[in-house]
Design brief:
Elements (H helix, E strand, L loop, with lengths): L3 E6 L3 H12 L1 H8 L3 E7 L3 H8 L4 E3 L2 H6 L5 E4 L6 H11 L3 E4 L2 H18 L3 E2 L10 H8 L5 E7 L2 H13 L3 H10 L8 H4 L2 H15 L9 E2 L7 H9 L2 E12 L2 E12 L11 E8 L3 E8 L3 H18 L18 H7 L9 E11 L4 H11 L4 E6 L3 E2 L6 E9 L2 E2 H12 L9 E5 L4
Parallel strand pairs: 1-2, 1-4, 2-3, 4-5, 5-6, 8-10, 10-18
Antiparallel strand pairs: 7-9, 7-11, 9-10, 11-12, 13-16, 13-17, 13-18, 14-16, 15-16
The structure holds L-homoserine (HSE).
């Protein structure tokens, strides 16, 4: 049977990995997919560089629309990234009746509803395993392997750059900027690294997983997003002393009131496997009512790990693309006509309604009654304390005045109540600096 012909838009780190792995493993891939899969056309702005990468047998063009217009091409891989031209090209490829494979989490988290609707109307597939956690087959696990379950929550380290930075800061005492440069050098970071360090990239991925887990539309605009730029080395150290590691987690959780969707630094008990995921590795924990807790671990970025996910999608499409479109696995795991009703029944909650526990660090004057006033405010707000750690006082002011760090771990409470208590504590004259608040996830 004739090979499936694939057009590749953008041959950077992931594109060249995809080309190389597909070529290297072509015999096995053919045996798995039932027919050959071949990249026969590539579009890239740097035509000469692209031609050198793929060799003479592959047609290279500077205009992506030439790939979409080619009637021989069955599947288009979009590896351009971003919301701009990539969106236009994906929609044009769908309109031309091509199946699409993309690693573009930003595009799907923000415009997924429009793109999936266009694909369903046209009877083509949009596959995106590479968009979440790189080489880890988490989309397939959520959409197919765990389909029997009512998913309770997902918590993931889904940004390798920030996990690398946090690991380097803790292990080697590196400064934030040095660790970020190293992550960029190793090719983990996004083109715009603020997407990594401000939590936006992780929020794109968490948004996609929340839709698949709970049968709701992708709603990036409802996600709470907080990155790692405000984290201090002191907090990483104190957390360790209390038996926790700080990780940037993407969390989505079913509650009786709706869906939590949030990305922020979190304290995780050191004894959890996920707390020991180091460097640029990714890991996703999924809690289902039938299966219990499951954990998926692997490389979340890089050339061939991401290519592994792209090619898995190519094989899926090759196997399924002759099947009646109504019998395919739905893009977001649930039938599209059920998503809007679920959006009303399962609203994504505002951050003020999220329930979690907290690590607080207060820089306080080392005076009688300070601890009592702080704990009094928490007691008044019905926020229960789990642990308190007070460091030895440092002499900092004149006339022997001293300051100290007061670290408090709390039990669960609703975020809005904690916000009010924090405002009250911050207003005390004996609280000398902005209070650090990091959320804590036991993940039990
Ligand atoms: N910048 C991303 C990361 C790459 O650091 O995980 C994969 O999405």
């Amino acid at each position: 049977m004739k090979s499936i012909q694939v057009g590749l838009l953008g041959i950077g780190v992931v594109g060249s990995g995809t080309f190389n792995v597909l070529r290297r493993n072509q015999d096995e891939i053919r045996r798995r997919a039932g027919r050959g899969i071949e990249i026969t056309m590539v579009a890239d702005l740097d035509v000469a560089r692209a031609q050198a990468l793929v060799g003479k047998g592959v047609q290279v063009v500077g205009d992506a629309r030439a790939v979409i217009a080619n009637p021989e091409i069955d599947i288009v891989i979009e590896l351009i990234g971003g919301y701009g031209i990539a969106k236009t090209l994906v929609l044009e490829a769908i309109a031309a009746g091509k199946h699409v494979v993309t690693a573009n989490k930003a595009l799907l988290a923000v415009h997924g509803t429009e793109i999936f609707a266009a694909a369903s109307a046209k009877g083509v597939m949009v596959a995106f395993e590479a968009a979440v956690a790189g080489g880890i087959p988490i989309i397939k696990a959520l959409r197919e392997g765990l389909t029997a379950n009512s998913i309770q929550w997902i918590a993931g380290i889904i940004n390798g750059t920030t996990n690398f930075i946090l690991s380097e800061m803790r292990d080697k005492g590196l400064d934030f900027d040095v660790a970020l440069k190293e992550a960029q050098r190793l090719g983990y970071a996004e083109a715009d690294p603020t997407f990594d360090i401000e939590g936006v990239d992780a929020a794109h991925k968490a948004t996609i997983m929340s839709a698949i887990a709970f049968g709701i539309p992708v709603q990036f605009d409802r996600a709470y997003v907080e990155g790692i730029t405000q984290l201090g080395a002191a907090d990483i150290k104190y957390a360790e002393q209390l038996g926790y590691r700080i990780k940037l987690l993407g969390i989505t959780k079913r509650t009786p009131h709706g869906i939590e969707l949030r990305v922020h630094p979190s304290l995780v008990p050191v004894k959890r496997l996920i707390a020991n995921v180091e460097g640029a590795m990714n890991a996703v924990m999924v809690q289902g009512d039938a299966v219990g807790t499951t954990l998926y671990y692997g490389k979340g970025a890089g050339s061939e790990p991401t290519a592994s996910a792209v090619i898995a999608d190519l094989v899926d499409i090759t196997r399924l693309h002759t099947v009646d479109p109504l019998n395919r696995v739905p893009h977001l795991a649930f039938q599209p006509q059920t998503l809007d009703q679920a959006k009303t029944q399962l609203p994504v909650l505002p951050m003020g309604e999220v329930v979690t526990s907290y690590y607080l660090r207060l820089r306080v004057a080392d005076q009688a009654g300070v601890l009592a006033r702080v704990t009094g405010i928490l007691a008044q707000a019905d926020i229960s304390i789990d642990a308190v750690l007070q460091r030895e006082a440092d002499e900092v002011g004149g006339e022997g005045s001293t300051q100290t760090d007061l670290i408090i771990l709390t039990h669960d409470c609703v975020e809005a109540r904690m916000n009010d208590a924090l405002a009250e504590m911050q207003a005390l004259s004996t609280v000398l600096a902005p209070i650090t608040r990091i959320r804590k996830e036991e993940l039990a």
